[in-house]
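Following up on my earlier thread - several people asked me to post the actual chain instead of describing it. Fair enough. Here it is, all 324 residues.
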Amino acid sequence: MKSPADNAFMRFSPKAVGIGAAVITVLVWASFIVIARASAGHTLNPFDLAFVRIVGAGAVLLPLGWWLVRREGLAGWLGLSPLPFRLTALAGLFGGLLYAMLAYPGFFYAPAAHASVLMPGSLPLWTTLLAAILLGTHITPARGLGLLFIVAGDLLVGGASLLKAFDGGEVWKGDLLFVSAGVCWSVYSVLVRRHALDPVKATVAITVFAFFAFVPAYGLLALLQLVPSRLADAPAGELLFQMAFQGVGSVVISGITFTKMIQYFGPVRSTMITALVPGLSALGAVIFLGELMSWNLLAGLAMVTMGIVFGVSVTIRPQNQPAR
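Reply from S.P.:
Thanks for posting it. Predicted structure:
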């Protein structure tokens, strides 16, 4: 039975759906990086942000999951996830819980421009390696050249901060967290392709797992003041905004569009396309956050852009041709 998203997407051609999903995903991801970095200067701490992200997404997706399980007669986990427990746990661990718990702390150490290059910028590398191992995906020469450029861009940015770690700096901590978050999202990307997961069901599943694995425990610890939470100190407007953007925007909307993009382009080409995010979000960081662009950041962005040219433009094919 078709999901609500599938019924809506049926009005358009597969190509239009794939391209539209890619555009929405890139714009939301770029905005996520700028807003998450700006949020580091406000009230909530990293795990508070993860908490409100999951709560915001859960407010929309848990009722949807309950409806899907009953409408389709699924034996879903807890009657809320439309996927079996094993898939729910795997997808939810990497695409929901770990991603949020690694990405948000990174913004408290490193600037948005570093996140721009190291988080979405590292996706093609990890996804290509995982897809080759788990899916038997062939790495073409053009894609390999694109990956080399993207990796070089990552090293120009992350390598510089790692060297500064010997001087007592902390930016490298954020860089490592960003790369780790990228690895987690790559695992989720390959799981989506390997199991041909429906966009809505996959997004519901990762939210159900993250919600029950994190929200009750963290909420109780915060209430008992056993963790350094600032949820009680945050203005209502900040909490509502973060729930709406981090939860509904970054999880619900981009989660569905990213999964739909994978269905059309495949996991490797999809994460190549998201390499557009670094340039857009770095530019947004300069405009909205007043961040400065050092030579290594500019060079890293240039290398990632070259990776897009070689890795995407010559390899994208419609889904009805074999994904490589």
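Residues 316-324 have pLDDT under 50 and may be disordered. That should answer part of your original question.
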